[in-house]
Amino acid sequence: MFDYLIVGAGFAGxxxxxxxxxxxxxxxxxxxxxxxxAGNAYDFYDEAGILIHKYGPHIFHTNSPDVFNYLSKFTxxxxxxxxxxxxxxxxxxxxxxxxxxxxxLYGMNLNSSEVSDFFSSLKEEVPQxxxxxxxxxxxxGRELYEMFFKGYTKKQWDLDPSELDAxxxxxxxxxxxxxxxxxxxxxxxxxxxxxxxMFEKMLSHPNIKIMLNTGYHEIIDEINFRRMIFTGPVDEYxxxxxxxxxxxxxxxxxxxxxxxxxxxxxxINYPNDYDFTRITEFKYLTGQKHKKTTVVYEFPKSDxxxxxxxxxxxxxxxxxxxxxLAAQSETIFVGRLATYKYYNMDQVVAQxxxxxxxxxQGNDLNLNRGSVINISQDNE
Length: 380
Ligand code: FAD
Ligand code: UDP
What we know:
Helix content: 25-40%
Order of helices and strands: EHEEEEHEEEHHHHEHEHEHEEEHEEHEH
Largest sheet: 7 strands, mixed
CATH architecture of the domain at 2-37 and 203-245 and 310-369: 3-Layer(aba) Sandwich
Bound molecules: flavin-adenine dinucleotide, uridine-5'-diphosphate
Number of strands: 17
Structural class: alpha/beta
CATH topology of the domain at 2-37 and 203-245 and 310-369: Rossmann fold
Oligomer: single chain
CATH class of the domain at 2-37 and 203-245 and 310-369: Alpha Beta
Distance between the termini: 49 Å
Strand order of the largest sheet: 8-7-13-14-15-12-16
C-alpha cells in the first residue's frame, strides 16, 4: 500500500515525492509514461558527448530564496546569465529591447533618458491592456512590435498577439538601460551536473519507488494507494469531458557541428525569418568544454506532446470548467499541465512546495480550488 501515487516525474511530481517521503515519511510511488525522470527539464549526453535538453532549452532563474534554497539541497550550481539576440532587419540585436538595441537598429547614440523619450514618441495609447499586442504597442509602438513580436508570436502560438493574454508578451520587458540579460532575477544558475542528476538526488529516498514507461491508466487498478497527485494534462484526467484544452507543442531539431561554437550567444531569436522561432547552443548554458557543439532549432506546432498552455480568454474559461471538477476530486492537481498555467520551473517548484505545506497542515481539502502560487516574475 502506497500513501501517494504521483503521476508525472517532472518538477511538480518530484518535489512532492521528495517532501512527502523525506519530511512526512510517506510511501510514494511516482510513475511517468516516458522512459526517464525530470519531465520537460530532462537532460542527457548526446552521441557526441554534449549535454543537451531533450525538450528545449531550460534556463533556471528565480526571485524566490525558498525555491533556490530548496533545490540547492540536491545540486550545486553554475552561475549563468542568459543572453539572447534577435535577428531582425539584417542585424543581431539584444532582446529584451534595450538602449543598445535601439542605438544599433537606428544608428543613434541615445542615453537612457533619451531612449525613454524615444519610446514615448513611438508608443500607442491603449485604453485597457488586455492582449499581448496591447502590452508591446503601449511600451514601444507598432514598428518595434512588428520587428520583434508579431512574427515570433505568430510562429510560436499560431495566433496574432492580439489573440493572446497580456501575460504572454509581458514575460519580455522593455529596458532603457544597457542590461542585455534575458532575465534579471536574483538567482540565475544552472544545476552544475545537469537537471537529471538533480532529480535523481531528489528521488533517491528509500520510501520512493519509481516506475517509468507507465501511463497511469495501465496501473491504476493494480496498485493500492491512498491518494493520487496528478501532474499531467488536466483535460486528459477527466477524459476530455468538456473537450480538449489547447496546448502548443514543438518539434526540436538537434544538430551537432564539428566546430567549437556556432553562434554568438546562448539563444538567437528569429522573429521574422524561417519556420523556427529560435536556435539555442547548449554549451553556453552548461559551460561544457568540448571540441564539437550541439544546437537546437524549435519548430512550434499544434499537435504532439503538450508543452505550453495557451493563455487566452476562451481557454481560461474552459480550464475553469475542469478546475471545478478538480475541486470536487480527491486527486490533487499540481504543475504546468495539471493547472493549465504558463509556469516557469521555479513557479512549479513553488506551487508544489505550497501544496506540500497544505498537506502537512492537514489543510488539503481545498487544494484544487483556485490557483495556489504567484511568485513574481521580473517584468521590470
Ligand atoms: P512536466 O515537466 O511536463 O512533467 C509532467 C510529467 O507527467 C511528464 O514527464 C509526463 O510524461 C508525465 N505524464 C503526463 N501524463 C501522464 C500519464 N497519463 N501517465 C504518466 N505520466 C504522465 N522553465 C523555466 O523556468 N526556464 C526555461 O528556460 C524554460 N524553458 C522551457 C522551454 C520549453 C520548450 C518548454 C516546453 C518549457 C520550458 N520551461 C522553462 C517550463 C518548464 O518546462 C516547466 O515549468 C516545468 O518543466 C513543468 O514541470 P511539471 O512537473 O509541471 O510538468
Ligand atoms: N516573444 C516575441 N519575440 C521574442 C521573444 C518573445 O514575440 O523575441 C513573445 C512570444 O509570444 C513568446 C513570449 O513572448 O512566446 C514569451 O517569450 P519567452 O522567451 O518567455 O518564451 P518561452 O521561453 O517560454 O518559450
